[in-house]
Every structure is written in C-alpha cells, then in structure tokens.
Design goal:
The complex is a heterodimer of chains A (about 425) and B (about 425).
Chain A lengths: L6 E9 L6 H9 L5 E3 L12 E3 L21 H17 L12 E7 L6 H10 L10 H11 L2 H6 L3 H10 L6 E4 L5 H14 L5 E9 L3 H9 L28 E10 H6 L6 E10 L12 H14 L8 E3 L6 H15 L8 E2 L2 H4 L6 H15 L1 E2 L22 E2 L4 E8 L3 E8 L4
Parallel strand pairs in A: 4-5, 4-6, 9-10, 9-13
Antiparallel strand pairs in A: 1-7, 1-8, 2-3, 6-7, 8-14, 11-12, 13-14
Helix pairs in contact in A: 2-6, 3-4, 7-13, 10-11
Chain B lengths: L7 E9 L6 H9 L5 E3 L12 E3 L13 H5 L6 H16 L12 E6 L7 H9 L11 H8 L15 H9 L6 E4 L5 H14 L5 E8 L4 H10 L25 E2 L1 E9 H6 L6 E10 L6 H14 L6 E5 L6 H15 L4 E3 L2 H4 L6 H15 L1 E2 L15 E2 L5 E2 L4 E7 L4 E9 L3
Parallel strand pairs in B: 3-7, 4-5, 4-6, 10-11, 10-15, 11-13
Antiparallel strand pairs in B: 1-8, 1-9, 2-3, 6-8, 9-16, 12-14, 15-16
The chains are: A alpha/beta (about 425), B alpha/beta (about 425).
Chain lengths: ~425, ~425
C-alpha cells in the first residue's frame, strides 16, 4: 500500500531487565546476557515459579525531578515515565514549544498496577469461614475500606499511566491505552502509526509498560501452567524453540518510541532511526486458552503487515519472533512463519529476545521493536540463547546462542496475546 | 488528511442497562425519566459510604447465548465479560449479520473495558488457609505453597480486560482487528473512534464496538468508594446522580454494557441493512490543564471533520458525571463551542456512571434519539447550576429537527473523546 504520510521513529527509550537505556539493552543482547534471576520483588520461595526477569536498581529520581509526586504509582507508571522521558529527549520533543503540543499524542499498551496483596488477602481471609469458600461482603467491606489506600487503588487504574505521561511531558494530542495482554504495546505502536497516517497527530509517544512480578501475577500465570518452573537454573529457563522448553519467564519493564510524520521530523531536524512501514492485526477467534494450532490468526496477521508495507515475503531480512518458550506458541509460530514465507522461511534468520529478557507482557512488543531498530542500524542480529536441543517441529534458523552479522534492511516483529490477539510490525531502514 | 472516502454507519444496536435491556425499553425509559438507581441488592451494602447504584434488574445471558460450546465457557467469564458478550451478540443479530455469510477476516471487534475485579469467592479460601493466626496476617509462604492450589486454574483469564472482545471474536467468528481500550470513562468512545479509523482504512467492513462494566462486586465497590467521588444522597437513590444540578455531590456507580455494529456504508447498502445513523466524525485529545481548553478544541475538530455547523447540532450528549468540578469543566468546554442555546443531555442521571461502558451505552441513546426524532430529558437536573452555563434539556421530550448529535466523554485525568453522529436520511 502507498501511504501518503510516512511515519518514522525519531526517539527511543527503554527500562528493561537488561539495561536502563536502549543502547545498554542492545549491548547486553549482543553479549547473550540474561536478565533472569531469583524473584526479589516479593518472597516467592514457596511459589511454583521462584524466578523472573526483573529490572535492577531502578530509581525514578535518576530520571525525573521530584519523583515523590508519583509515590503512589505502581512500577508500571514509574517505568513508563522514565522510558518516555528518554524517548522524548532523544527525539528533541521534550519541552519543545516550537511544535503544536495538541498534535503530539500518547498511545500505550500498558497494564494495571498491582493489588495491595497483604490487605486484600487479609480482608478476604477474615471474611471467609474456615471450612468454606463464601466470603462475607460485610466483613470484607469493614476491613478493606479501613486498610486499602485510596491513592494506591486509584493509581492501579489503567488510564493513569498514559495520563501521567501526557501530563508530565505536555502531550495534548490523542491519548489512548489498550490492553490486549501480550500483544498490547505492539498493537499500541500499530494504532499510533494509523493516528499519524490519518493526520490526527504529527507525532505519538507510543509503547508500553508493565510489571506482573507480584504475588497475584505469578499466581495467575502459575495456575495457567504457562510459566517455566526450572527453579534450579533460572538463567536457562527461557529457551524459545528448544525441544526442552517448559514455559515463559515473567519479565517487566517499559519501552517507548516516538513515531513521527516524516516531513514533520525532517523540518525540525529530528534524528530518524528507521521507518515504521507496516502493521497488521488479527484475532484467532479460536479459544481464550490457546492460540490456533495452525497459526491461523498469526498467518493472516503477518500477511496483512506485508501488504500494508507494500512488501513481498522475500523482502524481509530478519524476524523477531514472539517466541515465548512455551511448547504451543513456538510450534504454532514456526508453522505460521513457514506458511507465510514458504521455502524462504529456512533462509530467514529468526530470533527471540525473550530468551534473554523474559516476557515483558504488555511491554514486550515495543521493546522487541526497539531491538529490530538496533539490528537495522548496527548490522548485528541478536541471538536466541539457551538453544541446545533442536525440536523437530521447530526447524528454522533461530540464530542460536551467538549474535550474527547481517545487513538487515527490513525486520518483522510479532506479538501474540492471550485470547488470540495478533500483531505484526514491519520496520525498515530509512531511505528518502 | 488521507483520503477518507469510506463512510461508516450504525446498523445494529445492543444494550443492557439498569433501565432497560433492549434498545426499545432503554429509550422508552429515558423518555419517561425512569431511574435505575436503587439501594444495592447484590450484597448487603450497609457498610458502604455509597450504598446505592444502578444494577441490571435481571441478567440472564442464557436467553441470548444458546450454543452449547459457548455456554460452557461462561464459567470462565466474569459478569462484565458475560455482559459484553451478550451486548455484542445482540447487536450482531440486530444488524442481521450471520456467521458464515459475513467474511470473518473483514470483521473485527473493539471494546472499552476497565479493570475487572476478582470475585472474592475465587480467592477467599486460599487467603483463609494462608493465615498465620486467627486475626492474620496472610503468609505469602503458605499462599505459595497451599493457597495457589485452591484457586480455579483459569482464574486470571476470567478477569483480563480484553476478554469481552476476545469472547466476542470467538463467539461471532470475528477474525479482523480486535482491541480493548482501557481509558476509564472515555474507554468505549475512544474504542469507537479507533473502529472508525479501522473501517476507513479499509481493513474491515464490519466492526462490533462495545463497552462493558460491572462494579457490582465487593472488591470494585471498596476500591471505587475509596477513590471515586460518589454521591452521599443514599436516602433518595433515584435522585442521587444529578448532572449539572446546583446540588450535585458526585456520581453513583451503574453497571451496563452496550454494543453497536459500525459498518462500511457500501457494505451495509449492498446487503440491504437497516441504517440507524452515520458516524460522521471522531476526534480526541488530552485536556492537560483540565480547564476545557483542549476539550473545546477537540469538539471543534470533530465538528469540522464532520462538516457540521453549530446550528446543525441538535444536542450534546454529555458525560455529566455529577461531580462538582467535573461538570463545571465539561460545561465550560461545551459553552465555549456551542454558546448557551444548544441542548445538553446527560443520560447518566437515569442509571449512573458505567465507567468504561458509558460511552457506547450513552451513544446508543443519541443514535435512537436521532432515529426517532425525539430527545429525552436529563433526569435530576432540577436547579441548573449557574456555574455550568449551558442549556441542559430537562423537561419533556424535545422534537429533533437538526441532523447532528455530539457525544462527549472524558476521564478525570483529561483524556477526551468526541464523536459526531448524523441522522440517516434514506
């Protein structure tokens, strides 16, 4: 498709388990480092899964002045504020009053804050008889209304993250938050692209932020049996496409990019890192518990992104897979890639950043997109670490264990979410 | 702007509200100034600061969803999710769409949703058996070891905000774009705006756009009573939510779900669909100063995109949150754009604030109003507040003569969405 308004990436920011800037993240990815270790956010020593990929040494004070204003906010909002500032500074839009602030939007795929576990569970426990399941609402109200903090409860609401970011950095254009589970920030980037193409904004700060490394988050994923339980070897737990993979590793963090209309970016002399060339999104319409076994939705999604970018399958040089390290995802994604790319699939290098970063849930898609931008600019593809035993069902080139040099002009990034939510983004080397 | 040749129309409606659970009874109740706000009945509310709200008088999803496989998955759905799925299904059928005849790759779904609170009974026993003493606290160690095993395995999937749209995509075989917008009180109107962009950019012909929200569970009640500005008029529930009234003192919580079928005009005409109204334009922004400046700008942008002049607008369907500051903020923006004469209608007076669902639920009101050429009155605005200098329509049913209506929603932080709809002249 020919788009009359082209959209480029003019700023990037990231707070991740492998670095607090995009540059640091990519350096660690080239080293094949892992962000995974024992959970320190809460005492998880009795949980089925006791490790995660966590952001280390994060201090909001290093990023913004007077961080006390955000003391009631969750990690998701704090990560978002820091990553947003990096991206806006990078693009030259921070505090830049020569541009129309009402034409600068925000579109985040960001998750909710975390519940006050001690007071919520205690309020329920005191209201539940020793031999039953029925919680008495009156007793629950009595304890919960007294012990919950109203500011904390408010800051859990999902619109507060994009609201704080817009308020702090004076972004008065379209403001969206979407929640499509593991596809959220990929979808946010894609829909932000459309806001600019249609002329509803000149630039959009977009990406995502999330932390589910809290007791209810780990509880929920453990119950679904989607998390790896390789407690003895956390660093080796995330092993996408390896035969012995046993689930994903929960991660956390934020990634932000500034998408900007090309002429707008050129006119103000902004750095242009790459072009966002294509976006596709579909639903599996199959089951909420599983993705479609033949990759039905994923296939349609990648094809739509190619069509949107006006490209053929053979035009792509690299794929950053969703690659969660669950049995089902990695098999279905491999089937889908083969369907879309045919014989060329065997020549197309693919890697999963999740092998090193874990799964950043709502923030995953955008951080993986940032990795693709680095690969295009630096000519070195990041590896899939922990790849030891080939799976006969996953027989493509997953860039095992070591980074690889290659001139990459165009990369595809996939994100798939619970409920059958699919997103594919195509990013290209910028050429005028 | 890029070429916007594709037009989008509303061809199906579904609504579940405290004052009516189909479009006809909903609109009749609005015209008759009925209230759906009562003392809460789902659980004894006496311990709550605001013990009143708008509950669905009856909700029987099995009347709508009859397919055995789909019924089986009901136990994986929180009430909010069930409500959203039912509203989407009703709208789909109202539009006379049929699975198998509709191209599934060209049909999608967008919902506005918020946090969906866990039912306490799913977690209560896990918490109880993890207590270290009779009065607590709950031990994280015991929770990890024993508590988790006591929770239903699919617990998390029951409450993910994207579940209304995912279940709708599965039940109705919608394989196109699927998204869930979570911008609080503006969520479902912003979802409508995105669905409009999707239809216009020609990746779908049909989008089911919905909103669903039930806070009729103890955890939501506690949370919203703590941080939301709720009315203290518990002794007269039906009069508690008073949009733009001098004596307003906050919202009441209402549960509701609604969905509309937004369809490409050519697609709708080709299959002979009944058209209720056209979505003429959408705009959104962030009113950072919370003083109405950007809100007014967004309204003007939407009107300009729709090609609508001020005197062609029949009414503004307002947010009408009934908080002292919220209504002043909104009235300031409306006044700045429309002056003192354009009628303002705030349907929340009848059923309270339905959060993420509000946008589409209230929009259905204006779609029906334009279709039937009748504007219902705003309930509970008895003494218009001079600090809200707009013309709130409060008395009787007003005949509609002008072609456009404006729907406005915004959040407490400043996210604003504005839709302009046009009555359909066949």
């Amino acid at each position: 498709m020919n788009h009359s308004r082209r959209v480029v990436i003019t700023g990037m920011g990231a707070i991740t388990p492998l670095g607090h800037t995009p540059k640091e993240l990519y350096a660690n990815q080239l080293e094949g480092n892992s962000g995974v270790g024992p959970i320190f956010r809460f005492d998880a020593h009795t949980f089925p899964t006791q490790f995660a990929s966590q952001v280390k040494d994060f201090d909001l004070a290093k990023h913004i002045r007077d961080p006390d204003r955000f003391r009631h906010c969750g990690l998701n909002t704090k990560f978002a504020l820091a990553a947003a500032k990096q991206a806006l500074t990078d693009s030259g839009l921070l505090g830049n009053n020569r541009v129309d602030r009402t034409a600068l939007g925000v579109y985040l795929g960001s998750g909710e804050g975390s519940h006050d576990f001690p007071n919520l569970t205690l309020s329920m426990a005191l209201a539940c008889p020793a031999d039953g399941y029925k919680v008495d609402p009156t007793t629950f109200y009595r304890h919960s209304l007294r012990t919950f903090g109203s500011a904390h409860e408010y800051e859990m609401e999902m619109h507060t993250t994009s609201g704080h970011v817009a308020e702090e950095y004076a972004l008065e254009g379209p403001n969206y938050t979407c929640q499509t589970a593991c596809a959220a920030s990929g979808q946010a980037v894609g829909e932000a692209l459309e806001l600019i193409r249609r002329g509803e904004a000149d630039a959009v700060l977009t990406g995502g932020s999330h932390s589910m490394i809290h007791p209810f988050g780990v509880t929920g994923f453990n119950l679904l049996t989607t998390l790896s339980m390789r407690n003895a070897e956390p660093v080796r737990a995330s092993r996408p496409f390896d035969l012995n993979r046993d689930g994903f590793v929960l991660g956390e963090g934020a990634g932000m990019v500034v998408l900007e209309e090309l002429d707008h970016a050129k006119k103000r002399g902004a750095p242009i890192y790459a072009e966002l060339a294509g976006y596709g999104t579909t639903a599996d319409a199959y089951r909420v518990t599983d993705s479609h076994p033949d990759g039905r939705g994923a296939i349609a999604c990648m094809k739509l992104a190619l069509k949107d970018a006006g490209l053929k399958p053979g035009d792509l040089d690299y794929v950053n897979a969703h690659g969660t390290s669950t049995q089902v995802n990695d098999r279905a994604e491999t089937i889908a890639i083969k369907d879309v790319f045919g014989e060329y699939a065997y020549k197309l290098p693919i890697s999963s950043s999740k092998s090193m970063l874990g799964h950043l849930i709502c923030a995953a898609g955008v951080v993986e997109l940032i990795t693709c931008v680095h690969i295009i600019r630096n000519g070195v593809m990041v590896p899939t670490i922990n790849y030891e035993t080939p799976d006969p069902d996953c027989d493509l080139d997953y860039i095992p264990n070591k980074p690889r040099e290659k001139h990459v002009d165009r990369a595809l990034s996939n994100s798939f979410g619970f409920g059958g939510q699919n997103v594919s983004l195509i990013v290209s080397r910028f050429a005028d | 702007m890029a070429a916007a040749a594709r037009r989008a129309v509303f061809t199906g409606l579904g609504v579940l509200s405290p004052i009516g659970s189909d479009p006809d009874s909903f609109f009749t109740a609005l015209c008759e100034r009925k209230s759906g706000v009562r003392r809460l009945s789902f659980a004894d509310p006496s311990g709550l600061p605001c013990p009143v709200g708008g509950e669905l008088p009856e909700f029987n999803p099995k009347k709508v969803i009859t397919n055995k496989d789909h019924l089986k998955s009901f136990k994986m759905m929180a009430r909010t999710v069930q409500m959203g799925l039912v509203a989407a299904t009703v709208a789909f059928r109202d539009a006379k769409l049929e699975i198998g005849r509709l191209d599934p790759d060209r049909a999608g779904v967008e919902f506005g949703a918020g946090m969906i609170a866990s039912e306490l009974d799913d977690l209560g026993r896990a918490a109880r058996i993890s207590m270290t003493a009779a009065d607590g606290p709950v031990s994280l160690g015991t929770w990890g070891e024993k508590g988790i095993k006591d929770i239903p395995p699919l617990w998390m999937l029951k409450y993910l905000p994207n579940m209304p749209s995912c279940h709708a995509s599965i039940t109705l075989d919608l394989r196109g774009p699927s998204n869930t917008i979570t911008e609080s009180d503006a969520a479902s109107l912003l979802a409508l705006g995105e669905a409009y962009r999707i239809v216009q950019r020609d990746v779908a012909d049909v989008m089911i756009v919905g909103g669903a929200e039930s806070k009729m569970n103890p955890l939501s009640q506690t949370r919203h009573n703590l941080f939301q500005q709720l009315s203290k008029c518990a002794d007269d529930p039906a009069a508690a939510h008073r949009p733009f009234d001098r004596d307003r003192d906050g919202s009441v919580l209402g549960e509701a779900a609604a969905a509309v079928v937004l369809e490409d005009l050519g697609h709708a005409q080709k299959r002979g669909a009944r058209i209720f109204a056209e979505l003429a334009a959408f705009a959104c922004g962030f009113d950072r100063a919370r003083d109405g400046t950007v809100m007014a700008k967004v309204i003007r942008t939407a009107l300009q995109r729709a090609g609508a002049k001020i005197d062609e607008v029949d009414h503004v369907n307002a947010q009408g949150l009934a908080t002292p500051a919220g209504d002043r903020w909104e009235a300031k923006a409306i006044r700045e754009v429309f002056g003192p004469r354009t009628p303002v209608w705030a349907p929340k007076g009848n059923f309270g604030s339905a959060g993420a669902a509000a946008g589409v639920v209230e929009l259905v009101g204006s779609v029906l109003a334009l279709d039937r050429r009748q504007l219902p009155p705003t309930r509970n605005c008895e003494n218009p507040d001079p600090d809200c200098p707009v013309h709130v329509h409060t008395k009787g049913i007003r005949p509609i003569e002008r072609p456009f209506a404006v729907k406005l929603n915004f959040t407490d932080m400043g996210q604003v969405g504005v839709a302009v709809i046009r009555r359909w002249e066949s």
